[in-house]
Design goal:
This protein is of the alpha+beta class. It is 52% helix and 19% strand. It contains three helices and three strands; from the N terminus they run ααβββα. A hairpin with a 4-residue loop joins strand 1 and strand 2.
Length: 85
Amino acid sequence: MSKKEKAVAKLRQNPKHVRFDEIETILYRLGFEKRQDGTSHATFTMGSHLIRVPKRKPFVKPVYIKMLLEELDKIQELEDLDDEV
């Protein structure tokens, strides 16, 4: 299991105790770039994929973690379809 996979698995195991910095690191490792900073939310993009994450301290709310995981799953499904073709 790679570092990326371990980090995403950690999000799935405990979505209540995730810091913004951890999310930022995971998204950078997956190839996302931070497009917007300085507001209450940060916007990350990778191609046509867009993810917004609020900068809550100390932890990001679990509902946002679940939305993030759903978006990452969609991206993974699209990559799997591209690999099959």
